[in-house]
Amino acid sequence: MSLLMQRKGPAAPLPRLEGKEVLVGPNPDVAKVKGVMFGGRKQFLSDVAGEEGFAAIIAKLSPKTASYTKTPLASSWCEFASLIELDRAIYETLKQKHPNVLALIGAASAELGIGRVYKSLDSTELLKFLENQAMFHNQFQKFGNVRFEKTATGGRMICSDYAVNSPIFCASAAGFYLESILRHGGTDPSVVETKCQTLGDSNCTYEMTWR
Ligand SMILES: [Zn+2]
Fold this sequence. Notes:
Oligomer: single chain
CATH superfamily: H-NOX domain
Bound molecules: zinc ion
Order of helices and strands: HEHHHEHHHEEHEE
CATH class: Alpha Beta
Number of domains: 1
Helix content: 40-55%
Largest sheet: 4 strands, antiparallel
Number of helices: 8
């Protein structure tokens, strides 16, 4: 279970779900994400919703999305629209119990990717991880540019030129970064999306602070 999920005190942020969604875009070939993202969601659902809850969500999905979720193939490319279909179904099903479930989904992805937990803050490792996340983003999604900037109190992730987008995707990304900070030993993490492409901004900017 992710550290974000286990955390006492302030809960992960609630999602902002208004904004313009683009699920396919002008070039369907780039509207793809890596299958590993479905793997993280499957793990999350079996932890949080159990076998029955997992089956209930699968039943709501189109055949293709259900297949990606039941049998995730980590290194295959899957339609972005399927990921959003799954995340929306998870959100609609679990939002009563977990209003911040989209952040928790992103956290589960980070948990799967990072594995280890640092006992105390290792800023060097955290900054390296975030830089790599930006540098190798095209291993996880076929669209957009991502760059990371260090700031006085943390860092900022700037995602631009997304051919496809959804506020649902942005909400899970925030949870991914929160969990990344926590797993590297950061305390009091804050991740705020201050600009968003779905709101017409030129990029999605995530301002991150930690101690
Ligand atoms: Zn955004």
